[in-house]
Amino acid sequence: MTWDGEQRARVGLxxxxxxxxxxxxxxxxxxxxxxxxxxxxxxxxxxSRWGIRARKVDLDMVEARTEVLGLQHxxxxxxxxxxxxxxxxxxxxxxxxxxxxxxxxxxxxxLASSCAASVAVVGSRAATHYGEWAAAEIAAGLAAHRHDxxxxxxxxxxxxxxxxxxxxxxxxxxxxxxxxxxxAGGLDxxxxxxxxxxxxxxxxxxxxxxxxxxxxxxxxxxxxxxxxLIAGMTACTVIVEAARRSGxxxxxxxxxxxxxxxxxxxxxxxxxxxxTPHQLIRDQEAVLVADAEQVxxxxxxxxxxxxxxVEAPARELDEMPTRLLEVREALRRRGxxxxxxxxxxxxxxxxxCLDRLGELEDWxxxxxxxxGSWGLRRPSGH
Length: 382
Prior knowledge:
The chain has helices at 5-17, 23-32, 34-43, 49-54, 59-68, 111-114, 129-143, 164-174, 196-205, 220-233, 248-258, 275-282, 292-299, 322-328, 339-346, 350-363; strands at 72-74, 92-93, 96-97, 103-107, 118-122, 155-158, 179-182, 207-210, 236-239, 261-264, 287-288, 366-368, 374-376. By secondary structure, the protein is of the alpha/beta class. The chain has two domains: 61-298, Rossmann fold (3-Layer(aba) Sandwich); 316-376, Winged helix-like DNA-binding domain superfamily/Winged helix DNA-binding domain (Arc Repressor Mutant, subunit A), CATH 1.10.10.
């Protein structure tokens, strides 16, 4: 299929910008359109940084190369586009931002479907055996098909790197589940080379994705830009292991900026790779999770269904103010929910959460449990 003007312009921008996630240019495209901005780079100031690069782009060669490699190129108007990426136009991290101009995809190109229910599992490249085990177990639990009850698979998204990323992809593949690897270089030369075999498996059973054209080598900036895609494509980011200076912290920053659910797996207290997860949990920025089921609880609607064949009666819950309803729905269906978990799920402050929980207690819809957590309850007569 021949690329139209919009797609050619976006490919040109992707090649000229080379994965820099330039926020100013993204905002310009949002107001003027990709074709107009691309033409201005080709015909405008010949000494500008992007103009010099734009005039070196051979779009016909890139289109032919994309076809020869069996890749698909998606743009935001494509129904297969993962719409969560569009949220990147409204956030900024370290002066970077903006949705990608497009995506090259190998494997299943329908990212809209595969990312509709998806979780990012990220962490240290220099992972411990414990970290790799935890990442693989959580990924397998999320990606597995459950025959015992109606639980849909979640697509596991990661960056294809050594350590936690590779363990997460392997965990999903081990149960025949879907997984997506987002790379920081062109899909014609898989990086890191030591994971090339794994990435080919990911392509066969899921997708490998890059905003960079074939022939583009990874750079440090491109890795940081790649992290925003992992956070944007998914509803939740789970960080398994990360030292204080780990690159996974950048993915966490994007997830927080996007308002995504953030979860962290605790580790040994004597391991430097536990520093970031423990700090996020301690600062109430991430919810502690120990398995896939706890991750699912963060994503699932927490409203009890009516009994089969019984029509649910009209209840006070239907008349409850939205500000209270969102707090009630942040509680687990069974057992207690700590206040810090409610804070993480709702994005509210601790004081405001406690105020709303107190109101809900007055309504008779929640109760304070002996351990200090909050549980759901149904008022008498309902």
